[in-house]
TrEMBL record:
This is Phosphoesterase. It holds the Pfam family DHHA1. GO terms for molecular function: nucleic acid binding. It comes from Pediococcus cellicola. Residues 247-310 form the DHHA1 domain.
């Protein structure tokens, strides 16, 4: 049997299903989690389906988390969506169920679970969840709630269909989801809107962006900067794509201060492969979109230098 068939058999087998996703969730993490839960619940109303993880107020409009007791994990099927490695799973009880399944679109550098379905070429985990539904649509039901969540995840992870992972299949999936009748315009406007503090931070990012001659850009959002704009780490997600809008920038890093003095590093690229750099700094991800950590300003400087070297090598290869 294929991984999808094995997963479907496990869903039919278990009465209680608990779905996890990664910490600091983005729209795809919550979209794939909520979308899968809504499909299972609509298809098997007698089953208990719970979504767990920290509730993020800014993404509660996609779907809200459930409260799961420790006893709920007894004999439960646990599914983790959109999470490449175990340390990133939100709520460490994900190992307490009877069976563990990983559904993800990141490179499978850190395998885990009793069953894995990993498709790195997929635009998003939400696209994968739709494909799962479509494969078994004679027995599964999709609702506007599920479609809204999955569409949101796809739009979020493709950068409004701007990123290279967007394929003709991605657009066909989006069209099929739109046809279920949820308010697509409202979702698009919600994803496109930003709070006033983020708008002001955006101006700061552009004003303070350091760009090398070969197109490596970076900006450091220190604790003082975050306090000035009354923002926490989660509120900085909206500025991550901004450097890429500059035509001379080919790769970039956003460093965000954490409470312990370290920095969260968001890496993006239009060409150079950056996930290997991320792995060298306690991170990982896609070839053009990754995350890492810097323990102090010295490591911030090191990552900046390594990113600049990647940009230089890429530009040299392009000219040859």
């Amino acid at each position: 049997m294929t991984p999808q068939q094995q997963i479907f058999e496990q869903i039919k087998k278990h009465q209680r299903i608990i779905i996890h996703r990664h910490q600091r969730p983005d729209p795809d993490a919550i979209g794939s989690q909520i979308g899968l839960a809504a499909i299972i619940h609509a298809s098997f109303p007698m089953k208990t389906v719970l979504c767990v993880g920290k509730q993020v107020s800014g993404l509660a409009w996609i779907g809200e988390m459930d409260i799961a007791d420790d006893d709920d994990y007894d004999d439960a099927l646990v599914i983790v969506t959109d999470t490449a490695n175990p340390p990133r799973v939100d709520d460490n009880r994900y190992t307490h169920g009877q069976t563990l399944i990983k559904i993800d679109h990141h490179p499978n550098d850190d395998p885990y679970g009793d069953l894995m379905w990993v498709v790195p070429s997929a635009s998003s985990s939400s696209e994968m969840v739709y494909d799962f539904y479509h494969q078994f649509k004679k027995e599964l039901t999709i609702t506007p709630k599920a479609a809204k969540a999955l569409y949101t995840g796809i739009v979020g992870d493709t950068g409004r269909f701007l990123y290279p992972a967007t394929t003709p299949h991605t657009l066909r999936v989006a069209a099929s989801l739109m046809a279920t009748g949820f308010d697509v315009t409202a979702v698009n406007q919600k994803l496109d809107s930003i709070a006033l503090p983020v708008a002001r931070l955006s101006a700061y990012v552009y004003e303070n962006l350091d760009i090398t001659e070969d197109g490596a850009a970076s900006v450091c959002l220190t604790a003082e900067v975050l306090e000035k704009f009354d923002l926490k780490d989660a509120g900085t997600a909206g500025v991550v794509p901004l450097p890429g809008k500059i035509n001379t920038v080919i790769c970039w890093a956003i460093f965000v201060a954490q409470k312990d003095g370290s920095f969260r590093v968001r890496l993006r690229s239009k060409g150079p492969t950056i996930n290997e750099l991320a792995k060298q700094h306690d991170g990982g991800g896609h070839a053009l979109a990754s995350g890492a950590k810097a323990k102090d300003m010295d490591e911030v400087k090191q990552i900046r230098a390594e990113l600049a070297a990647l940009a230089t090598a890429y530009q040299k290869d392009e000219k040859e």
